[in-house]
Structure formats: structure tokens, C-alpha cells
Design goal:
The structure holds two protein chains of two kinds.
Chain A (H helix, E strand, L loop, with lengths): L2 E7 L8 E7 L2 E6 L13 H4 L1 H5 L9 E2 L2 E2 L2 H13 L6 E5 L5 H13 L5 E3 L6 H6 L14 H6 L2 E5 L2 H4 L3 H11 L4 E6 L11 E4 L5 H12 L8 H8 L3 H13 L2 E6 L9 H14 L3 E6 L12 H9 L5 E5 L19 E6 L10 E4 L8 E5 L2 E5 L12 H9 L18 H9 L15 E6 L2 H8 L10 E4 L1 H7 L6 E6 L2 E9 L7 E5 L3 H4 L4 E3 L6 E3 L2 E7 L2
Parallel strand pairs in A: 6-7, 6-13, 8-9, 8-11, 9-10, 11-12, 13-14, 14-15, 18-22, 19-21
Antiparallel strand pairs in A: 1-2, 2-3, 4-5, 4-15, 16-17, 18-25, 19-22, 20-21, 20-25, 23-24
Chain B lengths: L3 E4 L9 H9 L7 E6 L2 E5 L8 H5 L5 E3 L5 E3 L9 H5 L9 E2 L2 E2 L6 H7 L5 H5 L5 E4 L12 H4 L8
Antiparallel strand pairs in B: 1-8, 2-3, 4-5, 6-7
The chains are: A alpha/beta, B alpha+beta.
Chain lengths: 555, 159
């Protein structure tokens, strides 16, 4: 049987890379890299290489599950259909996470609209969702413009905020080409962790965790003489950044007419991601000339009209009885949220892989994006999906699922956008001031480290790939000086504990973290239990924050 | 001299896509993986296809041989899993984990040409920044490869 190459679009992030699935008949052999692909020239990141391995993954879900036990689709529709049809609209919540085409998102919105429920939200409790909000127009102002690859290539100054190369490695080529093109092109990097990108930057603003909004606000105030400034010594003391770097960055962006900001925002990296995005928006508004903002994200999930936090609150209050989620990860990818779902009478969710835990409720098998046709949203516009394989046996498409529940083909409704509000400069200044260290702040003697999270593309492979022959234990990065003081050597087994729980890790000595800081990979589900989350009452965002931790050698 | 994998430090961001691409092609065991030559560097390393391979000299069953093109290839049929090659390799690029009983060593994706008609290793094709290149001797001294490394910012590369 001959080999065929099925060209499709990778949907593991919104970059929209083209790749090919190698098949021999129905057997999936791997991934190939077509050099003539328009956006990525055949290059993919680690997530893209996973595409073929997910298609025939040993844990691929092929049957509906109820409380972890296999059932049939007929049983599901017979049992759940009447419950949903008879449920009052305000007691039903509909959510969605990733692995949905635009058409499927519209069907989900149509499903919610048909039942008259306002409880429609993105079940993607990740800080990067705020970056999508960042690019939406605020009432009374024009739309923000998402930077294009040409903007990056031609940029005089590029500012990377957060772990851009980790979130979206394929963008690195364009950034580095721009960096090397001419000597007067400048690359700046701002982050609390010394990431890959820092090694390439002309100036690296290594901020103390959680102080990114202070620094961004300070840069904005340097660009606008009318803004009230924060005293330089206060900015330096709070953030640890050299003020001369801020002056240089501001002068560059003021002088150069083509500036681009690329931002990445993963959970567990900063305590106030909403302030960070507000400060970014403020900074963008102060830049003159051509400018663009690129949101470097893992997922193209867009916010819905409601918010996950509001829905979780209503579930806790007993006001929502049924939650139905369309996607592939919620809620089992966020174990900390599971207790908040216990009051539900019925939980239905969809998945591609069998969850590692037994979920109370229904888990339904659905196709992967690369098994579907449709349109997906990427950073550069909409792209067509071509199915690289038939949907796995036993799965049902979103259209089939909704049709089975309501008894007719689903209507498609454009997903309503959430209302966008913006903190005014003065209001933001007050909020930013609350981030300044207080003389009353005292470090916790027991949990004396600050625990941050990263989310590199390779971690996604480690978490989701079929078991590799040499499985990688979760690692925690610790500064060598801290390790010496605790008697920890490289690759030692250590135990990391936060107020929420503890977990075993392998120690990785690294100077990418400051002394007093620890770093773990948020891709690994086992690390997520260590981080607390809070619900921002005004926006309803679920925010996962850095936390305090202790670490010791575990024999 | 046959073409070899060359790493351009000016573009390597330590994303480990090369490892992931190799795992995807070879049943979950990567033949190129990241080494930490110093606490501040994370760089991909793979078989160097030495001109006088010590792994081939150590192998008691002539499993590893040098081809006319200068590649060190495995005839896995003869391998008994004695691990002599793993111990002998001065670069440490043959991992001690065995797939069945056979240690995994980079063969520059020799199967790719026959499978899909494309030349070159998959790690090179997948590399998001093009840091990994597949070059022969005449292309090696290209001035721009790695020279910018000397003039880049003083911040260390992350590990």
C-alpha cells in the first residue's frame, strides 16, 4: 500500500502551521514538514509533531464514559437528552474549550441560544485568554491591530513580554531574523524568568515576579509627559529593573516608528494578569507610528459572553444544575476546579483522550481538529482545515452530538463577544500602586520560596504523548545557591509543597530563576494541584496565581 | 564527506522540537536530545557520525559500520543489547534506554527518503527557527553561521 501525505493545519496554537500526516492506508505513520507551506515553511514546534501520535494514541477515547465506565451513545441520548430539554434555561450552563472549529463554536452558541441560557463561557481558565481581550476594541476607541509577520520582520524595536518563545516557538525565527537584520534594530525582553528569549535580547528586563504591570506602566509614563510618573527609585525597588533600561526602551520606541510588542501570558506566572494586560494596552496607546501587538498563545479559544468564574459561582450557589462542555480538556485538565463542580446534578464534557481520573459525569469521544473539515481562527486570519484522517471510530462530531440532544440540526449563531472595559490611567495607577512591596509584608517562614509556572511547547508533548521509553519525571528549577543551602544536587528527588498540597519532582539546577524562586511546568497536570486559583469578581476570570512553596530533599 | 547536522547557536532557542520530532518518528525514543554542557546551556546533541567511530570499534558483533558516504549505521539484526557502544561513545549520544534490546542511535533519518521522498533528518525539517541545518563540508565554514553568537547580548541562554 502506498504512502500518502495529507496536508492540514495544526491547531495546537493559533499560529496556523501547515503540516502533513503520513499515512499508509489507514495506518498513521507520522508527521511530515512541507517546505512550501505559506506561514511556517514546514517548521513546526513540538506540539505540531504530536499531531500524528494523538490520532492513534493508546488512550484515544472511543466510547462514551459515565463515571469512568463505558456506555453507548444510545444510552447517553436516552438519559441525558430529556434532562437537558427539560432543564430551565438559567439552570443550564454551556461552556467550550479548545479543539473546536469556528463552525462548531457557532453551533455551540446556537445550542445555548436555543435553550435561552446566558451561561455561555469559555472554559479555558488560562491567563492568556486576557490577551484576546486585549486586542478587542474598547467602546469609543478603534480596534487594536494584531501584528503581522511582516510587521515583525520590518520592526525597528521589538518588545517580548513573557515567555513568547515558549508559548509559540515558530514565531522565534521571524523575531530573530529581525534582530539580526541590522545593528540598530533592538530586541527587548521583559519577564520574571530568564527565558530562552532573554539570551537574544539587547536588554533583558528581569523583573521580580508580579511586578510586570509596574514596569509597563513606568514605560508608558516615560512616553507620555502628561502622565503622572512613578518615582524611579520606587520602580527599581519594587521590580528590581535598572531604570536606565526603561529609559532606553522608551526612547527607542519613541524614536523608531515601527514597534511591535509580542506578549505571552501563562497561568501561574504573575498574580495580576488583568493588570498586566491593562498596562500593556496603556503602553500600546502611548506608542506612536506603526505598531502592532501579537498575542502569543497556546490556544485560539475566545472569551464568551459570560465568564467561567461567574458560572462556577452560580454552581456553588446551586443556581446551575447542568453543565455541558464542548472541547477536549475541561474540567479534568484543571483538577483544582473539580470540587467546584460537585454541586452539579449533571456534568457532560467531551474529550479526545480518556481522562486519567474518573470523572463524575459523562465524557464523550469527539474527533480531533485534524480529523475534521471546517475553518479555524489563526493569528493571520481564518484557515481551512482539511481532514487528515477519518474521525476515530466511536466518536461523534459536535454537530452530531447537538443534533442528538435537540432532535434537529443545530443552528449556528455567531459567538457573542464579551463586554470590554478598560481601566483608565489614574485607576490603573492606583491598582499598580497596590503591587508595591509594603513594609508590613513579611515572607512566610515556612513557605519561603515563590513558585512560578511556565508552559513551554515541549511540556505539552511530555504530558500528552503516549508513554515515551524514558518517561520524564516532572522537574522543578531551583537556583544553584538555594540548592546548595538545602543540600540538593542536580537530579535529586525533591518534594515541593504549597499550602494546597505536595508533589515529588526531580531537581533541576538553573540560573534562569532568581534565588528564592522555583519554576515548574504547568503543562504537567500533577503540578496544577499546587497552584491556587481565584475568581476575579468583576470580569469573572479564573486566575491561577503564583504561590508560596517549600522544598526539601526527598530520599 | 556526507552531510551532517550542524547547530547554529544564533537561532537555537532550546525548544526541544528536535527531540519531539525524533520521538514522533521513532516510537517515542529520541535519538537527538538535549544535553547541558554547562548549567547555562541547553543544546541538542545527536550522533556525530565520526570518521573513526569508537562505538563501531567497541561493538563485538559488527552492528555499527561506516558506509561509503561516511555515515555510521546500525545493522540492528545483529545487535544483542550488550551496551558496549553506549559505553564507548565519547559524546554520550547513544542513550542507555533500549527499544526492545537495541540502543537507539541517530541515522540521519535514512528511512525518510524511501518513505516520503525527502532528504534530511526530521529534526532539521521541524526546527522552528532553522537552527539545525543539514550541511556538507563545503557549506560548513559559512561565515554567518554562529558568528553572531559572539556578539549577542551578555545574558546567558536559559537551561
Amino acid at each position: 500500500m502506498s504512502i500518502s501525505l495529507m496536508r492540514t493545519t495544526c491547531t495546537f496554537c493559533p499560529f496556523g502551521c501547515t503540516l502533513e500526516i503520513v499515512r499508509r492506508g489507514r495506518q498513521i505513520l507520522g508527521v511530515e514538514y512541507p517546505e512550501d507551506s505559506p506561514v511556517n515553511a514546514g517548521r513546526v514546534c513540538a506540539r505540531g509533531t504530536l499531531a500524528a501520535r494523538l490520532l492513534d494514541h493508546p488512550r484515544r477515547l472511543c466510547y462514551p464514559l459515565l463515571n469512568g465506565k463505558e456506555r453507548t451513545w444510545d444510552e447517553f441520548f436516552a438519559e441525558v437528552g430529556p434532562q437537558i430539554r427539560n432543564c430551565p434555561s438559567d439552570e443550564l450552563a454551556v461552556t467550550y474549550d479548545r479543539n473546536l472549529t469556528i463552525e462548531e463554536q457557532e453551533m455551540v452558541a446556537g445550542f445555548a441560544h436555543q435553550f435561552g441560557t446566558d451561561n455561555l463561557a469559555a472554559a479555558w481558565p488560562e491567563a492568556e485568554l486576557l490577551l484576546d481581550v486585549l486586542l478587542r476594541p474598547v467602546s469609543g476607541s478603534g480596534p487594536q491591530r494584531s501584528a503581522t509577520l511582516d510587521d515583525i520582520v520590518n520592526a525597528d524595536s521589538i518588545l517580548l513580554v513573557g515567555d513568547v518563545f515558549g508559548a509559540m516557538p515558530v514565531v522565534a525565527r521571524t523575531v530573530l531574523d529581525a534582530r539580526y537584520r541590522e545593528r540598530n534594530r533592538k530586541l527587548y525582553c521583559l519577564d520574571s524568568i530568564r527565558t530562552n528569549a532573554a539570551g537574544f535580547a539587547h536588554k533583558f528586563l528581569w523583573v521580580k515576579p508580579g511586578t510586570e504591570p509596574i514596569v509597563l506602566f513606568a514605560i508608558a509614563s516615560l512616553l507620555d509627559a502628561r502622565m503622572k510618573k512613578i518615582a524611579p527609585e520606587t520602580v527599581v525597588a519594587a521590580s528590581g529593573v535598572t531604570y536606565a533600561y526603561l529609559n532606553e526602551l522608551a526612547a527607542d520606541f519613541a524614536r523608531n516608528r515601527k514597534g511591535v510588542i509580542i506578549a505571552a501570558l501563562n497561568s501561574g506566572r504573575t498574580s495580576h494578569p488583568e493588570l498586566l494586560t491593562s498596562a500593556l494596552r496603556l503602553l500600546m496607546s502611548k506608542l506612536k507610528g506603526t505598531k502592532g501587538l501579537l498575542a502569543s498563545r497556546e490556544s485560539a479559544v475566545v472569551p464568551g459572553p459570560s465568564a467561567l468564574g461567574h458560572i462556577l459561582n452560580r454552581i456553588e450557589q446551586g443556581k446551575i444544575r447542568i453543565l455541558i462542555n464542548f472541547g477536549m480538556e475541561f474540567p479534568f485538565a484543571w483538577p483544582a476546579l473539580l470540587p467546584r463542580l460537585e454541586p452539579l446534578q449533571l456534568l457532560v464534557t467531551t474529550a479526545v483522550l480518556r481522562p486519567r481520573m474518573n470523572l463524575s459525569g459523562w465524557v464523550l469521544p469527539v474527533p480531533l481538529d485534524i480529523e475534521k473539515s471546517g475553518t479555524v481562527r489563526t493569528l493571520w486570519g481564518e484557515m481551512k482545515l482539511v481532514p487528515a484522517a477519518r474521525p476515530v471510530s466511536g466518536s461523534r462530531t459536535i454537530e452530531q452530538l447537538i443534533s442528538g440532544l435537540i432532535g434537529s440540526p443545530p443552528a449556528r449563531v455567531e459567538l457573542p463577544l464579551p463586554p470590554t472595559s478598560e481601566s483608565k490611567g489614574r485607576e490603573l495607577a492606583e491598582q499598580v500602586r497596590q503591587l508595591f512591596p509594603n513594609e508590613n509584608d513579611s515572607a512566610d517562614d515556612e513557605y519561603r520560596f515563590q513558585l512560578l509556572a511556565e508552559r513551554p511547547a515541549y511540556g505539552f508533548v511530555v504530558e500528552h504523548a503516549p508513554r515515551n521509553l524514558s518517561p520524564e519525571a516532572p522537574t522543578v528549577s531551583i537556583h544553584p545557591a538555594d540548592a546548595r543551602s538545602l543540600g540538593i544536587r542536580a537530579q535529586d528527588n525533591v518534594r515541593l509543597a504549597t499550602p494546597l498540597g505536595s508533589q515529588r519532582f526531580a531537581a533541576h539546577l538553573s540560573e534562569t530563576v532568581r534565588p528564592g524562586t522555583l519554576l515548574v511546568d504547568y503543562n504537567r497536570i500533577v503540578t496544577r494541584n499546587l497552584f491556587p486559583f481565584r475568581i476575579d469578581n468583576s470580569s469573572g476570570m479564573v486566575i491561577v496565581s503564583p504561590t508560596r512553596a517549600k522544598i526539601w530533599r526527598d530520599e | 564527506m556526507a552531510r551532517r547536522i550542524v547547530l547554529d547557536l544564533d537561532y537555537c532557542i532550546g525548544c526541544q522540537t528536535c527531540t519531539a520530532a525524533c520521538q514522533a518518528a521513532f516510537h517515542g525514543e529520541a535519538r537527538i536530545r538535549h544535553g547541558t554542557p554547562a548549567t547555562t546551556a541547553l543544546l541538542p546533541v545527536a550522533c556525530r557520525h565520526c570518521e573513526q567511530p569508537l562505538c563501531a570499534a567497541a561493538c563485538p558483533f559488527q552492528v555499527l559500520q561506516v558506509t561509503e558516504a561516511g555515515l555510521v549505521v546500525q545493522n540492528s539484526f545483529r545487535c544483542v543489547g550488550c551496551r558496549s557502544c553506549i559505553l564507548a561513545c565519547p559524546w554520550g549520544v547513544i542513550d542507555e534506554t533500549l527499544l526492545r534490546h537495541i540502543p537507539q542511535k541517530c541515522n540521519l533519518c535514512a528511512d525518510r527518503k524511501g518513505q516520503v521522498g525527502r532528504d534530511g533528518p526530521r529534526c532539521v525539517a521541524a526546527c522552528p527557527t532553522g537552527a539545525l541545518k543539514f550541511l556538507d563540508e563545503s557549506e560548513l565554514p559559512k561565515p554567518e553561521i554562529g558568528r553572531r553568537f559572539l556578539s549577542r547580548s551578555p545574558y546567558w541562554r536559559r537551561t
